[in-house]
Please model this.
Amino acid sequence: FLAAPRAWSEHGIVVTNIARELIRGTLADGAHRLETVTLASRTRARRWYARLGLRLECEMPGYGTGGETFVMYVATRPVEDL
Model:
């Protein structure tokens, strides 16, 4: 996901709500798992992922080409819905 800083300042709530609904809808339409990976140091992105309902699944030390630590956030469909 890419957005200009202006998009966040002017439309952040709308963007967040749309993204949240897309995640829910994708899982409801049959997807089992959605995941995203980001640098562990990107605290604003990590807070946003949590606001979207994604959960931190793991840290991946050394994952980046320069040895950076990355983290993975996921959303999964409940097992009873599979």
Q: What stands out?
A: The CA atoms of residues 10 and 17 lie 14 Å apart. Strands lie at 33-39, 55-60, 70-76.
